[in-house]
Amino acid sequence: AAVVIMPAFEVQSFLKTIVEERIDSMASVPAIYWLAVNQPNFREFDTSRVARLSYGGAPIAPDLVLEIMGAFPNARVGNGFGLTETSSLATFLPHEFARLRPETVGFPSPVVDVKLADRYVDGDVGELLIRGQNVVKGYWNKPEATAATFVDGWLYTGDVARIDAEGFVEIVDRKKDMVNRGGENVYCVEVENALAAHPAVFEVAVMGVPDEMMGEKVGAVVVPKPGRPIEAGELLEFAGARLADFKVPQYVVVRTEMLPRNPSGKILKKTLRETVEWGKPVPVGRAR
To answer: Which of 39, 74, 254, 258 has the maximal Cβ count within 10 Å?
Structure first.
């Protein structure tokens, strides 16, 4: 067996490598798979040899999970979630549940305990806490950060999550990214997943837009698929059928430029907040 590491990512080279190197196991971030399966010539590449495929490192839309399973039909897929502080993996969604519960990051690893703290008004969500042998002791030469993050043996992750009766963990947002719209919490990942399900949406980022009366309103930056123009009103009508009224974005920016990402594929929302010009909010009637 051999490990193939690409010195730099280029999507066509990535697809050629799968065939030429006879790749049977793959691990990458959702953005890489998303770019690959949306290439017009994707079906020209034989992916039948891929037997194991994992994704993680960033949120993934449920629709993309299903798309990946269709694109790599012989692969067992899985979603790994964790932090640097948990020595990478903390939970895992195995193949058997990938189609059934694609919105989750699965179950805690065997050595890991999870629970929720600081539950919000919603009741079933709170900050995700992790405890286990894989969790580090603290940060090197940062006693204050260590004391704030590691409390009574638990790692405070900064992720907002829900844990259901079956043990599935669902990450709904980062605490710092959650939108507080007039006292109502809006979880950006939930809104992003709803918008990403629209057939013309290529990628989307949701964040809070400062508002004098409400504190924040929901804004969305949307990149349409090539050759698939989309209007804000159409998108919001689509979202309104899937989200509570207060979660439907009132600001929408449609652009052709790809969203900024860091090397691991995560969208740089801080960069977007600093550069996006939101314009005027969508009339309430159109934003439901």
So the answer is: 254
